[in-house]
Specification:
The chain has 154 residues and is an alpha+beta fold. The protein has two helices and eight strands; from the N terminus they run H-E-E-E-E-E-E-E-H-E. It has helices at 26-41, 126-138; strands spanning 46-48, 58-63, 69-82, 85-89, 99-103, 106-112, 118-124, 147-150. Strands 1-2-3-6-7 form a five-stranded antiparallel β-sheet, sandwiched between helices. It has a three-stranded antiparallel β-sheet with strand order 4-5-8, covered by helices on one side. Strand 2 (58-63) and strand 3 form a beta hairpin. The relative contact order is 0.21. It binds zinc ion. Zinc ion binds next to helix 2.
């Protein structure tokens, strides 16, 4: 396992759509392990494939509301969402940039695990926000597109 470099704003890879994962092999497992290391090392709550230069539909989310378990999502899709929350949001690829983003408050995602098994997971508040933020990355979307107001930081 190792910490990888994070792709920064300005790199066109952040605006590309990712490909579906078809092979659940040792290479995928090692990428996921590196993504977890990279996210934790950068004190993030989520990281998506394009952020380490990999255009695959994979992301990891730190579920801070459930003992910091790390959820791996492969080929994730949102199957239900409800409520609304507006809160500050940032991204490891946009250091120093924060802004208010309105998103659903509760989100259920269907995804595959590292062995290809399908599962469903529901997150709320920050975890729901992280799911949606990371899945946006897989479609080439970044949070600044959705910011209603940027937050000034010194
Ligand atoms: Zn991000």
């Amino acid at each position: 396992m190792s910490v990888r470099n994070i792709v920064m704003d300005g790199d066109p890879i952040l605006r590309k759509r990712c490909h579906k994962v078809e092979k659940f092999d040792a290479r995928l497992h090692s990428i996921l392990d590196d993504m977890k290391d990279t996210m934790l090392h950068a004190n993030g709550v989520g990281l998506a494939g394009p952020q380490i230069g990999i255009l695959r539909r994979i992301c990891v989310v730190l579920d801070t509301l459930n003992n910091d378990r790390i959820i791996e999502l492969i080929n994730p899709e949102v199957i239900a969402s409800s409520g609304e929350q507006t809160d500050g949001e940032g991204c490891l690829s946009f250091p120093g940039k924060y802004g208010y983003v309105t998103r659903p408050d509760v989100v259920t995602v269907r995804a595959q695990d590292r062995n290809g098994e399908w599962f469903e997971v529901t997150g709320e508040h920050l975890t729901a926000r992280a799911f949606l933020h990371e899945i946006d990355h897989l479609d080439g979307h970044v949070f600044i597109e959705k910011v209603s107001e940027f937050i000034e930081t010194e």
